[in-house]
């Protein structure tokens, strides 16, 4: 969605934009009124990320080993399309894009989330070693567009980032949140509440696992149901995403103050909500910042812990660990945010900080300058 946000900004300026997409991504591309090119068929990958459980170092290494096998095949598939289309510039949301662009001497910008803490930085920079395939893919990009703000790096010094990341420092530009549907263009909170809850005047709490993740999944959403039973004074909306059938939860007889839905317009729900409960995913994090809304973050892995720390460190959220979490603990965290206006005020300050970096329009300008060969690119 970061790439979609920038692509839409470029299209508004009159540029011809085509999105290289897999078959499952096509409905989303069409929804945003963008043209697309289908990715060539790829072999089925047995990717280890689908296994449930906590993301430990051994499992992360297993994932990286799988990526080392998958990336060359993805790169070759992208080269076929790039060689036919020959665009003036490539805006990449995957690490393979810059390498495909480099094969035809096409300038490329890689759009990624800013790493927010020591755990994420150390894992990422650990891959930026001489001869590492992932490092080569990142270094092939002429520009690194980071969704985020340097003020959110957790106060990490250059010694944490290491030489591999430091070598790419001059390529890095920050944008703040990159939103395909900017929150300021949506209706106000009261109208969105009416639209999604039928006009309740109670505080709205939105629980989501984003597009769906087995790291938390059904167990987490069932816990949210139990927490809402302890919060009759709120209206709860639970989104099961694409991975879980809402019927699996409605079979548990939700309380009267809860609505269970499948895939929902996430930005609308976060802007409508008084508190969002999520697992620490990067897209939901940046949407909370863009909307100026506080959150309870339930984490399962290092990146989620770092993402949650962004909100907690700025007084805009509470971080809970999945292990040992109970409905009572979750309900108390939600109630704490609802009862203390400082969480909402701090979330508003984060929103204002992000807006200073310009979002998707600023990123579009960066891409234009990249094509023109200016601004040090």
The CATH topology name of the largest domain reads Rossmann fold
What is the average per-residue confidence, as pLDDT, rounded to a whole number? 84
CATH class of the largest domain: Alpha Beta
Order of helices and strands: HEHEHEHEHHEHEHEHEHEHEHEHEHHH
Q: What's the end-to-end separation, in Å?
A: 24 Å
Polypeptide structure, described:
This protein has 377 residues and is α/β, with parallel strands linked by helices. It folds into 2 domains: 2-176 and 357-372, Rossmann fold (3-Layer(aba) Sandwich), CATH 3.40.50.2000; 183-355, Rossmann fold, CATH 3.40.50. 46% of the residues lie in helices and 14% in strands. It has 16 helices and 12 strands. The protein has helices spanning 2-12, 26-31, 57-85, 97-102, 118-126, 133-139, 158-166, 189-197, 217-229, 247-250, 266-272, 282-291, 302-313, 327-338, 341-355, 359-372; strands at residues 18-21, 35-38, 90-92, 108-113, 143-147, 172-174, 204-208, 235-239, 258-261, 275-278, 295-299, 317-321. The strands form 3 sheets. It has a 6-stranded parallel β-sheet, with helices on both faces. The chain has a 4-stranded parallel β-sheet with strand order 3-4-5-6. The chain has a two-stranded parallel ribbon with strand order 1-2. Helix 9 (217-229) crosses helix 14. The chain is globular and about 60 Å long. It starts with a helix and ends in a 5-residue tail after the last helix. Residues 47-55 have low confidence and may be disordered.
